[in-house]
Structure formats: C-alpha cells, structure tokens
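Consider a concrete sample entry:
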Amino acid sequence: LRAANDYDSLYAKSAEDLRPEAARLYADLQKLEGLTPEQLEAAYMKISLDHNASMIRSVRFKTGSSDVSWKDLTSIKDSITTARKDSFFLVVGYASKTGNSENNKILSAKRSVTIASIVKHLKGGIGTRAVFLGQTDRFSKQALDNQICEIWELRK
C-alpha cells in the first residue's frame, strides 16, 4: 500500500525526470545489453568508478509478482542502514523477455517502486527514485534471473 502511495513521487518515466548524476548512470546502464558476464562485471566496475556509485543489492521477483520477501527486506535494510546518509539511491527495474512487453513494463515499474519505497522509508524520505530499464536477458538466459531490481547507491 505504501508503494502505491509513493508511485507518483518515486517513479521516473524517463531519464529527464532524474537528477543529472542519476540520469548519467541510467544512460550508461542502458548500454550494457548483450554483454557476457565477464564484460558486464567489468562494465559495472567502470560505472562504479565513473559515477562514484555501486550496485548494493539486487532483488529477484517471482513471475507476475511485485512482492518482497522478508529475507530480501532484511537484506535491503542491512544495505541501506550502512550507506552514507547523503547518498542518492536509484532503483533500476528489469523484466524478463517473456510475456507482453507493456505488461512487463507495468509490473517492473511496480517492482522498482516497491523497492524504492522501502529504501525511501529506511532513509527518512529523501533521495530515492525508481526507473524501468527494460526487458532483458542481461543477467541470465533463465527468465526468472532477469526479473529483478538493482539498488544503486550514488555517493556525493
């Protein structure tokens, strides 16, 4: 319910709705489709250095669901409570390439807003946005492994 109430304030429909540093990160993440796991790891390391950012947590979702397990909630809490107070968080949602692309976009947006809402409330209400990056097989050939949200911390 909290995530539904936060949707309009947290979901960025495009890079233009983001802070400049988050928009640059988003743009770099868009370029990573089709990389091997080794190339993706190297790209994430480069992004971390270039943006003073790190992907601090990845959350997988069951097919058709935007629910977060207690285990994932605890791991998100652990990650956020150890983060810098002045950090900005960008929650990036992905969908598998199975199913209808428009439905996947809607579901993935719900997932990213759910995670962003958790982050926002753990942080005290500021410095968090959610985006949808697209349907992907970036992380695995298995559909379930691509139904994820990544939490990126951008440090000042």
